[in-house]
Design a protein that fits this description.
The protein is α/β, with parallel strands linked by helices and 382 residues long. It folds into 2 domains: 249 residues, Queuine tRNA-ribosyltransferase-like (TIM Barrel); 82 residues, no CATH class. It contains 15 helices and 17 strands. The radius of gyration is 20 Å and the shape is globular.
Length: 382
């Protein structure tokens, strides 16, 4: 029996937003969920202890491309798999590396067989196929794995998007067949990815053909590639209703805090984005009152926390003035404290969204979000 299982606990009758439970070999995840990105087996600047015990992240991401290049999936497998390697006892989702490979541009060549690319580290030639990316992820031992897909930039023509979508479908069939032969214990789940650029007809065609695989979950990819933000929402809205209601739906690479309830309202269960950690390191903090750019001079003697309604360690312990000092001084500690806050902010938004679905007042939260009101009540439980 598969260790992977999804069940829906509550559903908003107005929007279709869902609250569910995603069961994996490394624990149960309450959905909708935002997944912090730990590209190279680490969420930058944050210890696993903090992710697990203080932030209570149930699942994080790692990336096949980066771990394939360094330290190598075979080495990680010899060291006991990714969970043991990074000392993370909870669930892990691995991206196939397709997005990273296609961002290499001049360093890669796409064929129907796979992708030839040169490592950005040392220039070595490498070749990814749908089958090989499955093998890499099985060696890593992640709980949720992604099929290799072709991710195009924005904009492209309908003809270009059609050819790319057909290639993604072919890769998905090959990857799925290989995975079913290899994954005998069914401890993991492999998700195909719906592509089609910004063309609803292609998204529909791709989704309909991927449904034939009867996969345990489905992802919507090809977003956050330079398109206007409203197109990301439109493509999600066009695609999500086509996917099975009893399977988790994952939108890759989104979004800003105020966008999270909008994606949930479209029936999305899983999201990820580098924004919380990347923006934190660059001095951009998310709060219930909007953005806060810590380098600004107005914070030089500000004794208040980043967000008075936040219960994270950073806000409970340190002032804006101290964080500004650390940032201006180039101290490593700044990145840790800022990332803890931003990740906490995202996870708390998702907890609040989930609670509103269960209690039946998600439409009110959605309206408050659309009007620019705070998404979070003061956190007094942490």
């Amino acid at each position: 029996m598969s260790a992977f299982r999804f069940e829906i606990e509550a559903e908003c009758p107005v929007t279709g937003a869902r609250a569910g439970l995603l069961h994996t070999a490394h624990g149960t995840i309450e959905t909708p969920v935002f997944m912090p990105v730990g590209t190279q087996a680490t969420v930058k600047g944050v210890m696993q202890r903090d992710l697990e015990h203080d932030l209570d992240a149930k699942i994080i991401l790692a990336n096949t491309y980066h771990l394939f290049l360094r330290p190598g999936h075979e080495r990680i497998e010899r060291l006991g798999g990714l969970h043991k390697f990074m000392a993370w006892p909870r669930a892990i989702l691995t991206d196939s590396g397709g997005f990273q490979v296609f961002s290499l541009d001049s360093l890669r060549k796409v064929t129907d067989e796979g992708v030839l690319f040169h490592s950005h580290l040392n220039g070595d030639a490498c070749f990814f196929t749908p089958e090989s990316t499955v093998d890499v992820q099985l060696a890593l031992g992640s709980d949720i794995q992604m099929m290799l897909d072709e991710c195009l930039p924005y904009p492209v023509t309908h003809e270009e998007a059609t050819a790319s979508m057909r290639r993604t479908l072919n890769w998905a069939r090959r990857g799925w067949e290989h995975y079913r032969k290899r994954e005998k214990g069914l401890n993991s789940a492999l998700f195909p990815i719906v592509q089609g650029s910004m063309f609803p007809d292609l998204r529909r065609s791709c989704a309909e053909e991927l449904l034939e695989l009867e996969a345990p979950g489905y992802a919507i990819g090809g977003l956050s590639v330079g398109e206007p933000r409203h197109l990301s929402q439109e493509m999600t809205e066009a695609t999500a209703p086509l996917l099975p209601k009893d399977r988790p739906r994952y939108v890759m690479g989104v979004g800003m805090p105020e966008e999270l309830p909008q994606y949930v309202a479209k029936g999305i269960d899983m999201m990820d984005c580098v924004l919380p950690s990347r923006n934190a390191r660059n001095g951009y903090l998310f709060t219930s009152a909007g953005k806060l750019v810590i380098k600004q001079a107005q914070y030089v003697e500000d004794e208040r926390p980043v967000d008075s309604s936040c219960g994270c360690y950073t806000c409970q312990t340190h002032s804006r003035a101290y964080l500004r000092h650390l940032f201006q001084s180039g101290e490593i500690l700044y990145s840790t404290l800022a990332t803890i806050h931003n990740v906490h902010h995202y996870l708390d938004i998702m907890r609040h969204i989930r609670q509103s679905i269960v209690l039946g007042n998600f439409p009110e939260l959605l309206r408050a979000s659309a009007s620019g009101s705070a998404l979070l009540e003061p956190d007094v439980s942490r």
